[in-house]
């Protein structure tokens, strides 16, 4: 009867060992990935959730195993619109580049995520890249958001739109 607790403890430890080994190393499961995330909506909660999904993706696969691009067009550009710039761009209802959002963006950029913006949206909505957008440079502008999505998919990028 005294052996029962010892056997039970041994079985418990073996079970815990199996569970932790199943979750310990995902690098064997996931190889290099090329992914494009599509944002064309202005909902700040949904945009924040998408950035969290991207971070979770990096956590699972590893930044060294990922090439991630975020392509924004239309209302999705609100992710980078500075709150103080909203008066400059009246065709946008929201400016979601809050302090919390830019911290998430910075964190992702430090891990190699590229954020691209649509030139058609910039032109059509009167956006000044350097004045109105958070941390956007002329090199971040692509000719067309939709065409960029198709181009990246033709280059082997997997398309995600959370």
Offer a concise description of the structure.
The protein has six helices and five strands, in the order αβαβαβααβαβ.
Count the domains.
1
C-alpha geometry: globular
User: In angstroms, what is the radius of gyration?
Assistant: 21 Å
Uncertain segments of ≥5 residues (pLDDT<50)? 7-24
Q: Going across the major beta sheet, what is the strand order?
A: 4-3-2-1-5
Q: From N to C, what is the helix and strand string?
A: HEHEHEHHEHE
- Strand tally: 5
Largest sheet: 5 strands, parallel
CATH superfamily: DsrEFH-like
Structural class: alpha/beta
Mean pLDDT: 88
CATH topology heading: Hypothetical Protein Ychn, Chain: A
Give the count of helical stretches. Answer: 6
The percentage helix is: 40-55%
Percent of sequence in beta strands: 5-15%
Describe this structure in words.
With 162 residues, the chain is an alpha/beta fold. The chain has one domain (26-160): DsrEFH-like (Hypothetical Protein Ychn, Chain: A, 3-Layer(aba) Sandwich), CATH 3.40.1260. The protein has helices at residues 3-24, 44-61, 99-110, 119-124, 129-132, 145-154; strands at 33-39, 66-72, 114-118, 141-142, 158-160. Strand 2, helix 3 and strand 3 form a beta-alpha-beta unit. Helix 2 runs parallel beside helix 3. The longest helix has 22 residues, at 3-24.
Q: Notable features of this structure?
A:
162 residues, alpha/beta, Hypothetical Protein Ychn, Chain: A, five-stranded parallel β-sheet, 6 helices
